[in-house]
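Aim 2, interim progress: modelling of the adenosine-5'-diphosphate-bound target.
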Amino acid sequence: MSEVCVRVAVRIRPLLRRELLHHHKVCVRVVPPSSAQVMLGSDRLFSFDHAFGPTASQDEVYESCVQPLVESLLDGYNATVFSYGQTGSGKTYTLGGGSQDEGGIIERVAQHVFLLLATQKNNESVEAMVRVSYMELYREELRDLLDMNTNYKELHIRDDEKGNTVVVGAREMVVTSAEELLSVVEMGNALRHTGATGMNEHSSRSHVILSLQVNICSQSINNPSLKSVRSSKLCLVDLAGSERAGKTENTGAQFKESALINTGLLALGNVIRALSDRRRCRRGNSCSGAHVPYRDAKITRLLRDSLGGNAHTVMVACVSPSHHFVAETLNVLQFASKARHIRNCPGPAPP
Ligand code: ADP
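Predicted structure of the complex, ligand included:
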């Protein structure tokens, strides 16, 4: 199986109205002509697979970063897209936000998956099924966003006999069109809002995971005994605000919560560091097989296939251009640079 690197894109959002009113200065920009490099301040240059400035459209981001993953999904490969960055940097806008025309990655994935399935159905005798699950991870508790009956049910994760992480009892809904898929997502968002007190705080502290399981069974028209089954999964993950990764100065209940959020983001940082070191070690022919601490948090267990596993993975690191956030932007760019060293081995997912 051939290895591919986790691909990393950086997206710099525009200055917001209130930032313009308060004369915030721009501290990070895409450096032409390659448009895959960003400069922080006047002397810190970072290279990525893609870099998008404030005028980049949702279309551009989708076409360069996500479209190839959706195509490989329908060929039977697992794929993951996750957004990382501080609260207010554009993670939600990029994944799911914007107006109808400027819809984010989730809207575009929904349209694209069903368009590709319709095209396949024209060519072969194909049966396809798309199942959605939608979960939220908050304070190390995994909740089902699609189970209305049990009202914000907690889910458990365990390892199966092959060592794969499985979520026990998550509700999966079959969807037959982009519209149906998007209404399921809306339903999950509504449950998330009612289940949470202080929605803004809550959303900056939780990870949200939308999964599409695609099963395609095709039969040759000339020879009906020739059947093939492909099964694959796409995960779209909106991570908690990265500013939570290093903050432990709260006290009491807040400290506990902060520590629990840190567990996830710190564990993610440690996994990314271990995987990027492992790759460098391999190139230097020493210290191979370094331990990767996936088990330290639920988010790293859930992202195991996506980081060092069998999926095609894209990370979209979102940053604010404002000089007020220069320290956090530097953290995010350094984190994203490390993620570029991770190698995955995408193979067709098991049927
Ligand atoms: P996060 O999910 O990281 O907390 P949001 O996605 O909510 O951040 O973005 C914060 C604000 O910035 C929102 O008002 C959003 O509409 C705006 N915004 C973010 N990215 C862009 C962009 N690329 N173009 C225009 N507005 C954006």
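Residues 134 and 210 are 4 Å apart (CA to CA). The domain at 4-344 is CATH 3.40.850.10 (Kinesin).
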